[in-house]
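Narrative of activities, Objective 1.

The group set out to show that a structural description can be obtained from nothing but a protein's sequence at a throughput compatible with the screening campaign. Below is one input-output pair from the validation batch, recorded exactly as produced.
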Amino acid sequence: MLNTRGLEPPELASVRIVFTPAGLVLSGTITTKEPGSALSLFFRAVHELSIAERIQELCIDVRALTLVNSSALRLFIDWAIWVSQPPGASYKLRFIPSPHVTWQRLSFPPLAQLAAKHLILEDGA
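Output recorded for this entry:
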């Protein structure tokens, strides 16, 4: 379980981010022109906290994230890279995508191959 005291999700109009005991739940859409400015810093902080706290696995539930643009997709690619390189390789990143959301069905399998030893795809059906 991640100790998230002092770490607040960014406030964005179209996406909601909630901490859970297992990790994060993202819902809504990420279609702003440059989502990386706020989200990248937040995701990087969660990644670094995961390393510092030596967690075994961090779960990111994206089933309710219905639409993202290519800039937002890059955020997940970056996280896959972070977790696959030392010191990030100390934990597993588990994504829970929905098989009913087209962008997730098409994007997460290649992402899982990018970081095959450290990224897990759970069936979100």
